[in-house]
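Record type: ASSEMBLY
Status: queued
Input:
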Amino acid sequence: MFYRLSGVYHTDYVSDSRIYGVPADRNMAAFCLIIGLAAPFIIPSLYLNSYMLPWLIWTAAALGLNLVTGWAGQLHLGYAAVMAVGAYSAIHAVRFGVPWEIALIIGGLAAAVIGSLFAFAALRVKGLYLALTTLAMQFIMDWVLTHSAAISGGSHASLQAPTLALLGQQITSDTGYYYVAFGWCLLVTIFMLNLKRTGLGRALVAVREKDYAAAILGVNSFYYKILAFATSSFIAGVSGALLVATFFFLAAPEQFSVNVSIQVLAMVIVGGLSSIIGSYFGVALILLVPGLVNSAVASISQGLGVQIGVETLAHIPNAIYGALIVIILLIEPLGLGKLYGNVRDYLMVWPFDQIRK
Amino acid sequence: MEVRQHIKAAALAVAMATGATAASAQAEEPIRFGLCFDLTKSYTFISPQFAQAAQDLAMYTNENGGIEGHPVEIIIRDHGNEPQRGVECYEQLKREGVFNFYFLSSPVTNAVLPRIMKDENILMQAAAGRGDAVDGDVFKWVFPVGPTYWQQAANDVAFIKDQMGGDLSKAKIGFIYLDYTFGQDVLELMNTLAEQEGFDLELYPVALPGSDQSGAWSKIRRDKPDYVISWLLAGQHVIASKEMRRNRFPIDRYLTVNWLNEVDIKNIGEQEAKGLLRGTTVAGGQDLPLVKTMLDTYYANGRGSGPEAYVRDVYYNLGLALYAVNFEAARLAIQKNGWPLTPESMKAGYESIENFDAQGMMAPVTVTPSDHGGSGKTRIEQWDGQKWVPLTDWSAEYTDVVWEVIKKRSATYQP
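Status: finished
Output:
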């Protein structure tokens, strides 16, 4: 009824390898795209610049981490450090006089180079050992940032980003920033959607499931692991640079510290490993829900006229937020993406499947 | 809602036309202060006391006629020390008509700073964020009233010089600090002073989170510095005190930055801490007119904005002093330029503050368009087992060296 299907039946390989197997999915994606394009005109500026914009950039970043953790199966606890490499390289490049378009690519490439170093650890160790190695990399990066004034900008370790300019246009408005973030997130999403149906994507999945089994099948796990790390680091680097260019306007080590790494990993896990729409949901939950719950609790207590201490009031949203994550993972351990998938699968041929029951 | 607004607007228009009650309608408009604080993560050792002080002072001000007739409204939100949520809080309150902000967290303050400068709103930035923001020529909209860490360190060195008979050429001063921006920022100034005064400067970095200081203190035992200046925070002083005891370093040679309060003293042990030195930015204790007023009018009747224990804390005094300055700025602004209060007039109000000491709460501050810090005086206090005893008067030393650092740093900021 919603999907107007009696089932999904592929009759040739071309239809099987389409991005959207079901027309309704494609229509929904198109609808989201239109909403995204129209957002500056229909969404109040507060929600546009302090919810939508960071949401999109972090989604792009989370998709990059999902590539290496969800698809290639390599646990990564130093993702924020890679974003930092991208951000700092790009900003220094711009301050040096390089135009932003090239600086963003420089940031991405620099991040890819440093990020690939993580891959060399991944070639030797797996699972929890890899998690620990990447965590160590994160700490090394933190240390380098806080101890080299030349990189971090010196005064109170904050480095300002010059005004963003793309294609000869100075970008200074909220709408402009939003479209840059939207464009980047769209690019990464399209890349990830296509990754699913390419040989590269399948090779990554093979490496994830069992790397020596993959090797027996002729998949060079060494190559694909490095490729996964490099690609995801490139996405991280550009996302980090854009985060500073469009949202913070100033880079500081705390914006890329270890807790940020864990936050991105949480986004990916809560959203669902190797789920694209899940990354969108996961980022929304981890990034935006604390603020939303906070304002909700504040306005409820104001509306009821209850006298609660400021400290208690600040801790209630944290408790609600924590409970929310636990409940979601209890209901569906595979994350929000899978939760959405369940609903979608149930409705796919509804109500025709009811006849059989 | 909309209908009511229309009615209100119509009523106002009528009142304006007849020129009868315009003044009283105006008088009801509140002045709003936005406090986006970290009430749940890293800054919880100071933020509740600050928030409570602001609320108490607002309540007291409102019950005594407000600021030039306008009531004060304090809006407190939590940002959990996350830059992203700090920006969100700023953007939200900005749209609710707040233009006076305080974030009390360095990461968040740094993240919001470019927006504040662009939007030309007022940023109170005392005790957090970049120190060079006292340079009013560069940071036009930032008002970090109070001494910078550089000034505090310089005053500490001056105190040691005084204690050692005015000559530091044979002195050895240790500097134990948290190895991130908070501590590192002071190094440059310490080195300059060491060169100028000819004392030996020994550095003892402590890695975050500062819970392991054993390496630093065994080095201190070997080096035997005359004094140790400490750039540690809160609970780290407790660890330092244990290490001092273990390494037989006299606690009366331990001179800390202002971040040590009554809770830390209790954790060290009131008797154990006897002799400890602190460079302070506000007067400690409850023997101050403003604190006494709060205790007598509110806490004695159970009407305070929070637990009384928080009032008996030097950070409450600091919060009270900072908001007293802020309210004074608003008062001067309305007095000078009338209602409505705007960021411009508030800035002018701030910059006309002269010798204001919040009834003895702090060193008299004089804010000028180029010095937003208000002179940066501190004093050294010693814990005598029950209370803090001031050893020096409010003063600011080596101001030329300090301003050289400030100017050098602020020059790196490009708006």
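Annotation: Chain A touches chain B at residues 45-46, 49-51, 54, 146-147, 153-158, 160, 162, 247-250, 252-255, 287, 290-291, 294-295, 298, 309-311, 313-315, 317-318 (CB under 8 Å).
Annotation: The longest helix of chain A spans residues 276-304.
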